[in-house]
Amino acid sequence: MTEKPLVAIVMGSQSDWETMKNASAVLEKLGVAHECRIVSAHRTPDRLVNFAKGAHLEGFKVVIAGAGGAAHLPGMVASMTHLPVLGVPVESKALKGMDSLLSIVQMPGGIPVGTLAIGVPGATNAGILAASILATSDEALAERLIAFRTAQTDSVAEKPV
């Protein structure tokens, strides 16, 4: 994609890519320019601050943030930007992603993070939701999103085989 990226997909570590690549795949399929970065709340705090405070200046309109375990990344990004932040809890080994989910969803009033499902379904839906947000002001994207959803509906058999 040569267009300026409208969606930033950030994750806390390289191991999160296995989940977060699903958000990227959906955005690719819908023709939404995006960029993926590793931004750890714990290991690269300066990178986190620089990204979060400057995301709107880079032209991003939506941020998808995936993190596992303590999962502070989505909330920390949301605390430093006015952009919508969609949080994806990455499944953890210790608590199967429940720790990630609770860390992301339990934001204090005034700092919202739109939290999706744990793991691959959450990353997939985050990509669709980001496209839906952008489609409110992009008719061509809205048409692609409608076609995507229609194809999804049409792919469901009426009877089991």
TrEMBL record:
GO molecular function: 5-(carboxyamino)imidazole ribonucleotide mutase activity; phosphoribosylaminoimidazole carboxylase activity
EC code(s) of this entry: 5.4.99.18
Positions annotated to bind substrate: S13, D16, R43
EC top class, as a word: isomerase
SUPFAM superfamilies, A to Z: N5-CAIR mutase (phosphoribosylaminoimidazole carboxylase, PurE)
Functional pathway: Purine metabolism; IMP biosynthesis via de novo pathway; 5-amino-1-(5-phospho-D-ribosyl)imidazole-4-carboxylate from 5-amino-1-(5-phospho-D-ribosyl)imidazole (N5-CAIR route): step 2/2
InterPro entries assigned to the protein according to its UniProt record, in alphabetical order: PurE_ClassI (IPR033747), PurE_dom (IPR000031), PurE_prokaryotes (IPR024694)
UniProt key word Transmembrane helix: no
Superkingdom classification of source: Bacteria
Alphabetized UniProt keyword annotations: Isomerase, Lyase, Purine biosynthesis
Keyword Isomerase: yes
SMART domains recorded: AIRC
Reaction catalysis annotation: 5-carboxyamino-1-(5-phospho-D-ribosyl)imidazole + H(+) = 5-amino-1-(5-phospho-D-ribosyl)imidazole-4-carboxylate
Domain PurE: 5-156
Cited HAMAP family: PurE_classI
Family stated for the protein in its record: Belongs to the AIR carboxylase family. Class I subfamily.
Function noted in UniProt: Catalyzes the conversion of N5-carboxyaminoimidazole ribonucleotide (N5-CAIR) to 4-carboxy-5-aminoimidazole ribonucleotide (CAIR).
PANTHER family: PHOSPHORIBOSYLAMINOIMIDAZOLE CARBOXYLASE (PTHR23046:SF2), PHOSPHORIBOSYLAMINOIMIDAZOLE CARBOXYLASE CATALYTIC SUBUNIT (PTHR23046)
Protein name per Swiss-Prot or TrEMBL: N5-carboxyaminoimidazole ribonucleotide mutase
